[in-house]
Design a protein that fits this description.
alpha/beta; Metallo-beta-lactamase, Chain A; 7-stranded mixed beta sheet; 10 helices; 18 strands; globular
């Protein structure tokens, strides 16, 4: 069963174009939505692709350049117009509090929806854990403090072996405790070890997000083995010097990171507006990492 679904709302770099919107995406996991970055116009994209704002509880902002956070006040205001209640937690660099809070107080009533801003730890670390999903942040290298995020399943339970349950006529009410590690004691007093009743859990699935950053091999331990990696690919490698100067990556460099980190699949985005057709970026990435694909507005990936 595929637990994750990623929806791309925007994948352009700093300048929005007729084709692409500023950075934003939404990750769905077991009924919960997690927004990653919130560029200008995100509210329109969110509803355009049929996402449910009542399922959104957390927003993760990688850094405070406008193309990654200018959409916040508009989105929050719209949520209040929809009478959204409860709380939304925004995980972001510490300066967001002083930048966004005055806007919220000025434009939003705050009577039904509470916005809590949690500063990201400067050196990264665990920032969310609900017992089944853990989110960690890690530092990237950009012109301002910038963070990547890894979303990973945790505490996965083993699978009940149906044939063994039927053989020992185990009551259904006991199956949860067996999945948690309990042995089964038959009515005759025979102990059936847990290991005979369950099989190992399926491997954990994970998603890593890296935007914006220059080529930075130091991030590899944080994204190692991710099922899906999103990595910025602003330029072709012929503009490597420009990418380095502006603290961005080339498509080839994104693919090199994916290869070294041994991820399952690479999704590239944050395209420079100079490229009218992004297949040139994809072709470059595939030279190094075959299992690469392009981000695009409305793209949904289940994994």
């Amino acid at each position: 069963m595929k637990e994750f679904e990623l929806t791309i709302l925007g994948c352009s770099s700093a300048k929005p174009t007729r084709k692409h919107h500023p950075s934003s995406q939404v990750l769905s996991y077991r009924g919960k939505l997690f927004m990653i970055d919130c560029g200008e116009g995100t509210q329109q994209q969110f509803y355009r692709y049929g996402l449910n704002h009542n399922r959104l509880g957390h927003i993760f902002i990688s850094h405070l350049h406008g193309d990654h956070c200018f959409g916040l006040i508009g989105f929050i205001s719209t949520l209040e117009l929809h009478y959204r209640t409860g709380e939304i937690v925004i995980h972001a660099p510490s300066d967001l509090e002083c930048l966004l809070r005055p806007q919220i107080e000025y434009y939003c009533g705050g009577e039904t929806l509470k916005i809590r801003i949690e500063p990201l730890p400067p050196k990264g670390g665990e920032i969310y854990n609900d017992g089944t999903l853990k989110v960690t942040s890690f530092p990237l290298k950009h012109r301002v403090p910038t963070f990547g995020f890894r979303f990973e399943e945790i505490n996965k339970l083993p699978h009940i072996i149906k044939e063994r349950v039927e053989r020992y006529n185990i009551p259904l009410r006991l199956l949860p405790s067996i999945k948690d590690g309990a042995d089964y004691i038959t009515p005759e007093g025979e102990v059936i070890p847990n290991g005979e009743l369950v099989s190992p859990p399926t491997p954990s699935v994970s998603y890593a997000y890296c935007s914006d950053t220059k080529y930075t091999p130091s991030i590899i331990p944080y994204i190692k083995g991710a099922t899906l990696l999103y990595h910025e690919a602003t330029y072709l490698h012929e503009l490597e010097k420009t990418a380095k100067k502006r603290y961005h990556s080339t498509a080839l460099q994104a693919a090199q990171i994916a290869k070294e980190a041994e991820v399952g699949e690479l999704l590239i985005g944050h395209f420079s507006s100079r490229y009218k057709e992004e297949t040139v970026l994809l072709n470059e990435a595939k030279q190094e990492f075959v299992n690469s694909r392009l981000a695009n507005e409305g793209l949904k990936i289940k994994f």
